[in-house]
Design brief:
4% helix, mainly beta, single chain, 2 helices, 43% strand
């Protein structure tokens, strides 16, 4: 397995990140109220711009590939859309913010552009998802709210390819699929496995976490016909609404907090165990295929459980003390046997064909776990 590209970005944790269209630039937040834009210069990423407008920690960022607009969401209950324009004084392109009228009274937690880039969804702690679209008459972004039946903080969202359906995971232990159809913005969508009549705020599907854990991450497959979500009860659930069939994979590791699909039959998830994990399957069933982090074995893709937080010397010493009463062991190895040394907070596609203070680009096509390499194609994370 070829080694991943590892870049030391900063000493502070990376809370969220996103790439521009050609992957030559990277926007990320170092757990503060700024967005730093890095440009690839040789073999390093260098800061070339800093976007400063939020008052509190930025929780999420997304970069629209076609319109080249950046949207940011923050604990200050605001969102901004950043676009480039020519500065008449300097003659150079600068980023300028436009405030979005979210109308929420709790922190914004997650944001994603729709596939057509004509609207975006902002999750919040106000038990609300703000669906934001541009009002050309007043020259600002306005929000319509998805509320019922959300009962707690919304932690993640993901758009269906048809630009209308939206998946959301929340702290009320549910993953839901909503209609975010806006009459003046969207064309009437074609029927899907999620339904035909889709007025705004229609709940097209509701799925509970297997044993009552927060739903940290949700994601539609490339076709939009399958939904995956990761829960705090250390499980991954894959939903086929046309079946209907629901597959649940119980993990031996710590919970995942982020996921992304690399193909219709493959997804990558990561989280508190500090390693990206590959799952593969289809309508006939799903299973864990392996981990991308082979730091423990150096001989290819290791099995999940051979690396990560659950297999450090410190954790084993604690486990022995708890279950066997052994307290004489000396902990000498506190470093994780993974590239990331802390929770992976964000997994984003890099090329089609991370968390802590390190950016890692994983070569997913190099994984060889039960013939998985052929199905992954040329996706890199």
């Amino acid at each position: 397995m070829s080694a991943p590209e590892v870049y030391s970005i900063a000493q502070a944790p990376i809370t969220c990140h996103t790439f521009n269209a050609d992957r030559s630039q990277l926007a990320l937040s170092l757990n503060d109220n700024n967005i730093n834009i890095y440009t690839k210069q040789g073999k390093e990423w260098q800061v070339t711009e800093t976007l400063s407008e939020h008052d509190k920690v930025i929780t999420s960022v997304d970069w629209a590939p076609r319109t080249n607009c950046i949207v940011t969401a923050s604990q200050d209950r605001n969102a901004y859309v950043w676009s480039q324009s020519l500065d008449p004084n300097t003659g150079r392109m600068v980023w300028k913010p436009t405030l979005v009228l979210l109308r929420i009274n709790r922190a914004a937690t997650f944001v994603r552009w729709s596939p057509n880039e004509d609207k975006f969804a902002v999750a919040s702690g106000a038990r609300t998802i703000a669906i934001c679209s541009f009002d050309p008459e007043n020259n600002w972004w306005v929000a319509r709210h998805l509320k019922k039946p959300i009962r707690s903080t919304v932690l993640s969202v993901d758009w269906h390819p048809n630009n209308v359906l939206l998946a959301a995971g929340s702290a009320d232990m549910k993953a839901r699929v909503f209609s975010a159809y806006i009459k003046d913005v969207d064309k009437r969508p074609a029927p899907t496995v999620w339904g035909e009549k889709l007025p705004f705020n229609t709940v097209c599907g509701e799925y509970a976490s297997p044993t009552g854990g927060w739903v940290h991450a949700v994601g539609f497959s490339p076709s939009g016909d399958t939904l995956a979500f990761a829960s705090h009860d250390s499980s991954i659930t894959i939903v086929y609404p046309g079946g209907p069939t629901v597959y649940t994979i119980r993990l031996q590791s710590l919970p995942h907090v982020t996921l992304t699909w690399t193909a219709e039959d493959t997804l990558v998830a990561a989280g508190h165990d500090c390693q990206p994990v590959v799952y593969s399957g289809g309508p006939g069933g799903w299973s864990l295929a392996g981990t991308l982090d082979d730091s423990a074995t150096k001989t290819g893709a290791a099995r999940v459980g051979t690396v990560g937080r659950l297999n450090t010397a410190a954790f084993n010493a604690f486990r022995n003390a708890d279950t066997r009463g052994h307290t004489s062991e000396t902990v000498t190895d506190t470093e994780l046997h993974t590239i990331h040394q802390n929770t992976i907070t964000s997994v984003r596609p890099h090329e089609k064909g991370a968390g802590g203070s390190v950016l890692v680009i994983w070569n997913v096509s190099a994984v060889s776990v039960g013939g998985l390499a052929g199905r992954l194609g040329a996706m890199r994370m």
